[in-house]
């Protein structure tokens, strides 16, 4: 099973250097390394070339989705590893995930991401989505524990340090570039789930992630894109019956997220993003939507996992209020 590694990069030469060192130390190193440069103004492209990577220059910051898609089109491996430039892999990361793909027959695999800045905390594991259309990166900010120590079937993996069978892209397409950055991986996961193409979470594979190294987690541009892309997820995947049935959880989830953004001084960015998403609703609206009953099953499964994670760790204010007010039965 040959692996092509794709690394989109926009500045951050020192972080990239760290990732490339960890790739060189892999027990199953990639056969091909492609670094897609989104118009870096530092020496990141030179660092990549010195490490033996093939550098593809986009010429400008085209966004994460466009850069990754370009790398996928250029990749020759049977398996594609998509890696953020701010991750650091343990030496067996790729080998463990590749073995899990072969053993399970899954279409993609991801491992356990630990926070680079808070060593005792998780940065994330896999993604789920609530009835309100907002996504949850399971484990983010929580201490590691038994809940995140078992393999499980998943429908969405963070494209932070994940492996994908190359054939998956022929079946489900690549990332939707209208998202630019943020939640494009959740969109891909939902498309894969609708086709029955699931993945696997493999906690034995461990990486460290800096997170939002380019702009920052609560940068106004980050908030604007997430806010807009939350609307895109609803437009792209929720059929009309689900939109009607979950109207209250949708309004609640979106408004609560706006409250979080406001608390970080990004209320205006949240409003701009929501308005941009609403204006583009018809353009983004999917023609291959979920069957309503299938989507409801996925949403129910996702919310069960969120509630379980919140009951086994420090409660997140956002999810505590969402479940209390949405009528889900959570206490």
What are the main properties of this structure?
alpha/beta, globular, two-stranded antiparallel sheet, 13 helices, about 325 residues, about 20% strand, ten-stranded mixed sheet
Class based on secondary structure composition and strand pairing? alpha/beta
Strand percent estimate: 15-25%
Q: Spans of 5+ residues with little confidence (pLDDT < 50)?
A: none
Please state the CA-atom Rg, rounded to the nearest Å. 19 Å
The sequence of SSEs as H and E is EHEHEHEEHEEEEEEHHEHHHHHHH
Number of strands: 12
In a few lines, what is going on in this structure?
It is built from 13 helices and twelve strands. It is an alpha/beta fold. The chain has a domain at about 220-325.
3D architecture notes:
- With 331 residues, the chain is α/β, with parallel strands linked by helices.
- Helix content is 44%, strand content 18%.
- The protein is built from 13 helices and 12 strands.
- The strands form 2 sheets. Strands 1, 2, 3, 4, 5, 6, 7, 10, 11 and 12 form a 10-stranded mixed sheet that branches. A two-stranded antiparallel sheet has the order 8-9.
- A hairpin with a 5-residue loop joins β8 and β9.
- The protein starts with a strand and ends in a 5-residue tail after the last helix.
- The model has no long low-confidence stretch (mean pLDDT 93).
